[in-house]
């Protein structure tokens, strides 16, 4: 979004909630909202703002977090839930003994992350159906749900914060991979 787009969003909120800007500096408020929504398309933020307004029964204007949550809800409405993800895995398992790599590559990316790798598909394909449909299914769905929640929360972050997390994660991975001496300090 641009600064002008952000001002339009704030104007919508101001129109519906006349006291929204009371005591606020409009330039500073616009800059703050822009820093949070800079990578979001205007149409998405506008739709989320209007959806919030339509659902709001409290009578209070939205804060940044509420609009971010509305965007996340709109985006996850189209995403797979854990049952659909497990159904995709079960379909992939049918041919995994023959070509696990090809079956793994056909899976949606978020399902691939929850499965881990093609070798895991192959191991599951060899398992007893009872264990597969109870224990493995339950563990997979729990893992998928946790990863989806984590991804949803990460998506709400402003771009600068995402980059910091990515950089910190890369630094942690490098320290773990090459060892920086801190593992000797662990009890």
Description:
This protein is mostly helical and 187 residues long. The protein folds into two domains: 3-76; 82-174, no CATH class. The chain contains ten helices and no strands. The protein has helices at 3-16, 26-37, 42-55, 64-76, 82-93, 96-106, 109-115, 118-125, 129-156, 159-178. α1 packs parallel to α3 and α4 packs antiparallel against α9 (129-156). The longest helix is centred in the last third of the chain and has 28 residues, at 129-156. The protein starts with a helix and ends in a 9-residue tail after the last helix.
User: How many domains?
Assistant: 2
**Strands, total number:** 0
Helical fraction equals over 70%
Shape label? elongated
Structural class given helices, strands, pairing? mainly alpha
What is the helix tally?
A: 10
Q: Give the overall pLDDT as a whole number.
A: 87
Largest sheet: none
Radius of gyration: 22 Å
Query: Strand-and-helix sequence, N→C?
Result: HHHHHHHHHH
Extract low-pLDDT stretches: 180-187
How big a fraction of the residues is strand?
A: under 5%
N-C termini distance = 48 Å
